[in-house]
């Protein structure tokens, strides 16, 4: 097994562990919240139960993403099934989170309008507090696992945390981190709602807490949905990788100029690269073939995420290619316009 395969396998195992731990945590916490919500009649607790149910469905969809995205390429999908991870993560983000958000906001608005007075909520308030406290511990354990993996991967890439979260091509662990963060914040909202209801006797606070939980879920759905939309459409590789690829190609003795570079993420840790290169005029056809093979091998060795590499010889003066490059970028990756 190569170092690249071992690194990919370790990352896959880390993602699976994060998703499995999150699923177990959400299943246990969801049952506890449901019991507390039924005993107290608290809309915030019922919203939190819906939140956990949505999270459980999310983890099931992420398991599907991990399993199906690992299928080998075939004739129908010659570049593999890596984008299935983006698709299922999108379904999880949009469908499940939005359903949870809709229920929470509806339940909260209903509580604020009707302001039901249920003495059971005050009688069993201790149950809600106990469940919320235990939920923080359980959710915190899952959150720590996801955060550890994120911090490890961002250190390996040498990126700040915010930039890593924006550019990461692994939606599974990012989804778990976001949903666990939202779960902990939601628990704070629920705790405040129950406490204020108990202190004031008004269920309005309970309803407001439920609405805030719903809005939080909707925000997380929007952030994850936007990220996965970019990945599904076909986002380019990280800019610094593209600059490094450009510099490597430009430094080759057979290369006169790099005319165009295009890349697309075809899965997690999988990049498709297309390079249009103007080779020096005195290179023979045989030398050109050998140069392309050598450059392909060098790029694979230096950038393990480059899964497929296509190098196309073109003259830099070709008007159609030049117009296409300038229309797309205005400049080649290192900031210089093709001549």
UniProtKB/TrEMBL annotation:
InterPro entries: Cation_efflux, Cation_efflux_TM, Cation_efflux_TMD_sf, SLC30A9
Domain annotation Cation efflux protein transmembrane: ranges: 20-232
Localization: Membrane
Its membrane topology: Multi-pass membrane protein
Membrane-traversing stretches: 16-37, 86-106, 176-196, 208-225
Pfam families per the UniProt record, alphabetical: Cation_efflux (PF01545)
Entry keyword set: Membrane, Transmembrane, Transmembrane helix, Transport
Main subcellular location: membrane
Protein name (Swiss-Prot/TrEMBL): Cation diffusion facilitator family transporter
Annotated organism of origin: Pseudonocardia alni subsp. carboxydivorans
């Amino acid at each position: 097994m190569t170092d690249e395969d071992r690194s990919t396998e370790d990352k896959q195992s880390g993602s699976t562990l994060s998703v499995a731990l999150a699923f177990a945590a959400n299943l246990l916490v969801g049952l506890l919240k449901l019991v507390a919500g039924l005993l107290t009649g608290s809309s915030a607790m019922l919203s939190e139960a819906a939140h956990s149910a949505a999270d459980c469905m999310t983890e099931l969809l992420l398991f599907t993403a991990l399993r199906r995205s690992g299928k080998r390429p075939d004739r129908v999908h010659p570049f593999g099934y890596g984008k299935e991870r983006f698709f299922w993560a999108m379904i999880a983000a949009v469908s499940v989170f939005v359903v949870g958000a809709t229920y929470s906001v509806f339940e909260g608005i209903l509580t604020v309008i009707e302001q039901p007075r249920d003495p059971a909520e005050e009688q069993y308030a201790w149950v809600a507090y106990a469940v919320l406290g235990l939920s923080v511990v359980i959710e915190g354990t899952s959150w720590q696992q996801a955060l550890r993996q994120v911090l490890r991967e961002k250190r390996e890439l040498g990126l700040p945390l915010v930039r890593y979260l924006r550019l990461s091509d692994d939606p599974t662990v990012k989804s778990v981190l976001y949903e666990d963060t939202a779960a902990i914040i939601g628990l704070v909202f629920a705790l405040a709602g129950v406490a204020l209801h108990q202190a004031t006797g008004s269920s309005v606070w309970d309803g407001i807490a439920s609405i805030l939980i719903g809005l939080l879920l909707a925000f997380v759905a929007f952030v994850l949905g936007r990220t996965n939309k970019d990945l599904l459409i076909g986002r380019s590789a990280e800019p610094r990788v593209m600059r490094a690829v450009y510099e490597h190609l430009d430094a080759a003795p057979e290369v006169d100029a790099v005319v165009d570079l295009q890349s697309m993420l075809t899965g997690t840790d999988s990049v498709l690269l297309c390079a249009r290169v103007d080779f020096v005029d005195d290179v023979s056809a045989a030398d050109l073939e050998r140069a392309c093979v050598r450059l392909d091998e060098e790029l694979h060795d230096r950038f393990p995420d480059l899964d497929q590499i296509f190098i196309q010889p073109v003259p830099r003066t070709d008007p159609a290619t030049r117009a296409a490059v300038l229309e797309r970028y205005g400049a080649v990756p290192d900031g210089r316009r093709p001549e």
